[in-house]
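This entry is listed below:
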Amino acid sequence: MADTEKTFRSYTSDQGRNYAQNRLDYHQDLYNQIVEHHTSTGGKLDTLIDVGCGPGNVASNLSKHFVHTIGLDPSEGMIATARALNSSPAADSGKLRFEVSTAEDLGSNLSPPIADSSVDMIVAATAAHWFDMPAFWRSAARVLKSGGSVAIWGSANMRTSPGTPNAEAIQARIDQFEAEIRPYFLPGNELTRGLYKDLELPWTIEPAVDGFDEKAFFRKDWDTTEKFLALGAPEIDMDVFERMLGTMSPVTRWREDHPEATGEADVVRVFRRDIERLLREAGVGEGKEKVKGSAQGFLLIVKKT
């Protein structure tokens, strides 16, 4: 699927840093499952590529398992953020590095380019919905070694914990918020809401990309992000909640389309005030408003023959 998403691609380093500070990382159990599945199905641990790496947290976390790790992102601002936030002996030695490249190029634009049949694993965390998947799979087939893996994952569909005061009304307001920003969804946003069930795979595109084992395809779903996100199903205060929602690409596009709607007129601020009101109606004291929620998580792993 070719998409026209340019919101994250045009991020400045300041926007990248804000994104890094306000997006939740993934649970260590998820990282462990990905590496364990890769190695148990014949994968080696020499070179990893993290595609759409953003501020670099996934590449940094997984780099401890691999000799070489390369984070790729089309956004110069994101790559600048990743380099700034991940300065370490591993990064200084070149074992962890970040470069500007698209999922479709997959390092072919670098000097030297990422060599054919040189990569053990490719990962893409909450990013594949922006890829031109046929072009990505062709590049993945080129750079992956035999026995290599492509692990793709993400989460979607906010759900309020039943233990949250006034949970039913809050969930209705969450659904209303989704409807308000829906006009600013791109096809990639719809793919995440569908839990990647319609994501193009090597054997579903036309023409199919050879070299991948359909029979070895692996998928796992989480009903909640308890063991998917680093904080599980977190209870978060409203400041954090507002900042997290502000990193969503449809929200960014809504704000670009409504430059006059600042402060209390902002779509996220209005949403936040309504949630605070619903919590106070349920007896939560002012200034103590927190919401506990989760989302559905999903993981897909494709193997190279």
Q: What stands out?
A: The radius of gyration is 20 Å.
